[in-house]
Write a structure and sequence with these properties.
Length: 220
């Protein structure tokens, strides 16, 4: 999946079948400033992610992919990842289902759990957040009530980086009944692509390869 980083390193999960998740996304942006088109997609991983290009700070493309029968993965075409919070947290709250942000990269391991207030979320729909990130140095933090199945003893590790690792994150995903991977292992995926037309056309667009080579941040 590294071929589609940073998108697959920072993505969302919704405990909804694809059809329900797509309908919820359409409702969320129904009154947006930009006209939005919707396309049904069937294809390989490469074919599906090709439809998410170009990447841009405009975040004008969103891709929802079936991840099993009862979960949907959420991706957007941001230069830094899928910018999950607004759509996934609001859909989770509106549909009273679990929403997650999952980050697994060289410099960060993050889990954010979004729920409605009836299901334990706060006013911003956050239920639980745990992170170990590096920006010059490693930092660790958490908020929200720990899960009953959560091994909080790991957070006492001497190495800050080891307090929340990708393996620990996977353990929590298992406890939540969520998929462990951005996409299921399948030859063909079912997906829905949303495109907001003419959103920030002045911003440059890039391919996955461009972004992975750091071109958006290089002086030309």
């Amino acid at each position: 999946m590294d071929s589609f980083a940073p998108t697959t390193n920072d993505y969302g999960l919704l405990a909804l079948p694809l059809g329900e998740a797509a309908r919820a996304y359409a409702v969320l942006f129904a009154n947006g400033r930009h006209a939005m088109s919707r396309s049904e997609i069937q294809g390989s991983t490469a074919e599906v992610f090709a439809r998410l290009e170009p990447l841009s700070m405009a975040l004008d493309r969103a891709l929802l992919v079936a991840n099993g029968l009862n979960w949907t993965s959420y991706f957007a075409n941001g230069l830094l990842g899928s910018d999950v919070f607004q759509p996934v947290s609001q859909i989770a709250a509106a549909r009273k289902c679990t929403g997650l942000r999952v980050v697994k990269s060289r410099d960060a391991t993050i889990l954010e759990n979004y729920e409605s207030q009836e299901r334990g979320g706060d006013v911003t729909h956050h239920r639980r957040t745990i992170f170990a990130t590096r920006d010059g140095r490693w930092t660790f933090g958490s908020s929200g009530e720990p899960y009953q199945f959560e091994d909080v003893g790991r957070y006492a590790a001497r190495s800050i980086r080891d307090r929340f690792t990708p393996e620990h994150l996977d353990d929590l995903l298992v406890g939540l009944g969520a998929p462990l991977n951005p996409l299921p292992h399948a030859e063909t995926h079912s997906a829905v692509l949303f495109v907001q037309d003419q959103k920030a056309p002045q911003l440059k667009r890039w391919t996955f390869e461009d972004v992975q080579h750091g071109l958006p941040w290089k002086r030309v």
